[in-house]
Here is the input.
Amino acid sequence: MYGRKVKFRFFFVILVLLTLILSVFLVLKALEENVVFFKSPSDVKFLGELKNKKIRIGGMVKQDSIEMSANELNFIITDFKNEINVSYSGVVPNLFSEGKGVVAEGYLKDRSFFQASKILAKHDENYMPPEVKAALEEN
Here is the structure.
């Protein structure tokens, strides 16, 4: 019925569509692994299972909570309702201090302990990440 040229074009279009679908699927799958969710200490209190999922916890560094040892930094992040203890090994940003906003990225060990792999601090004195600002206003 159909000529050889029409069949070739049909299979070519099908091949291109399948390749496109597969490419989109692979890109979305790769991006899924890099998604990091932001939570406040109050949000962590009511979360379900979070083991082995990378998250970001943000709030203010509690006054008089920073403890430094030879290779570890321990501090408390608060949203003025709830608190979470954070442990971090690595270089701390220059703007990191007590009473300032911070976002810690890492893994939740339990509802009150967080193992940070990265510390993000404000880039100037007036800036606060929108997520931290919204969480503080909400609480």
